[in-house]
Amino acid sequence: MSKKSPVTAANWKMFKTPQESLSYVKELQIKILDIGQVDVILCVPFTSLFYISGFIEGEVVELGAQNMHWAQEGAYTGAISPGMLKASGAKWVILGHSERRHIFGETDEKIAKKMQSAIRAGLYPILCIGETISERKQGKTVEVLTRQLDLVLEVVAKKNLDQLMVAYEPVWAIGTGVNATPDQIKETHSDIRSLITSFVPLLEDRLRILYGGSVKPDNADELIRVDGVDGFLVGGASLDVDTFVRIIRAVEEYEMSGG
Ligand code: PGA
């Protein structure tokens, strides 16, 4: 996986049994045999991770998890550690998804702790950040993103992380069918890039910022062309293989055309 190829990442959320995941992965790999310019990451439920990891072939598809605990081990009933994810075949882990922040009450402090232990375990984080609709309407988008990045970037700088993936996911665009407009995405990605690279200059060439929030085959073509978009984090539209493949193809075609 190159440090700067575009990415199409799937966030399956709480969908698919291990068996369903395996059929998906087998079908997907056949359908994208000709794809070479896009990194495809599948962030699957814990129960599917180990089950499918032995079936991943080649270099295009990689596996990720959607959350983890910050501790390496301990009395944390129901939790999964970074080491367990790594040993189950995950390379990536989504941290700070808005559903974790808003439904499960994850704070920036907890997310920073998770960032630290993910890096320690050799996992690469996909950090999700994004504002709610009322925050955007009040003109607080940059303030919110700065707050969400603050503690995490201290960790990233201290740990010398050389590869960071950030997903900008406006909360109001997740699962709603309403995606952010190209102008909103362009402006916000540029703000995020400057916030991060001014704090961690090492990431200048290696930072990939994905857009997430109602990405579909119908808008992927337009959104991948937006300045500063290095790929997508796709929820709902990643659950069906053919739909997801159409999004991967939109990214590949843009990259092939010199994007
Ligand atoms: P969506 O979800 O594509 O269904 O809007 C994106 C996400 O939550 O990562």
Structural write-up:
This protein has helices spanning 18-31, 46-53, 82-87, 98-102, 108-120, 133-137, 141-159, 182-199, 217-223, 241-256, and strands at residues 7-11, 39-43, 61-65, 92-95, 124-129, 165-168, 208-212, 231-234. The chain has 259 residues and is α/β, with parallel strands linked by helices. It has a single domain (7-256), classed as Alpha-Beta Barrel (TIM Barrel). The chain has an eight-stranded parallel beta barrel with strand order 1-2-3-4-5-6-7-8, surrounded by five helices. Helix 1 (18-31) packs across helix 2, helix 7 packs parallel to helix 8 (182-199) and helix 9 (217-223) runs parallel beside helix 10. 42% of the residues are buried. Residues 11, 169, 174-175, 212-215, 233-237 line the site of 2-phosphoglycolic acid.
Task: Summarize this structure as a short list of keywords or feature phrases.
single chain; 259 residues; TIM Barrel; eight-stranded parallel beta barrel; 43% helix; binds 2-phosphoglycolic acid
Topology at a glance:
Blueprint: E1 7-11, H1 18-31, E2 39-43, H2 46-53, E3 61-65, H3 82-87, E4 92-95, H4 98-102, H5 108-120, E5 124-129, H6 133-137, H7 141-159, E6 165-168, H8 182-199, E7 208-212, H9 217-223, E8 231-234, H10 241-256
Parallel strand pairs: 1-2, 1-8, 2-3, 3-4, 4-5, 5-6, 6-7, 7-8
Helix pairs in contact: 1-2, 5-7, 7-8, 9-10
2-phosphoglycolic acid binds next to strand 8.
- What is the quaternary state of this protein? single chain
Quick one: biggest sheet?
A: 8 strands, parallel, barrel
Number of helices: 10
- Helix proportion range: 40-55%
Give the low-confidence spans. none
Question: What is the second-level CATH architecture?
Answer: Alpha-Beta Barrel
Q: How do the helices and strands follow one another from N- to C-terminus?
A: EHEHEHEHHEHHEHEHEH
Question: Helix- and strand-based class?
Answer: alpha/beta
Gyration radius, to the nearest Å?
Answer: 17 Å
Query: What is the CATH fold-level name?
Result: TIM Barrel
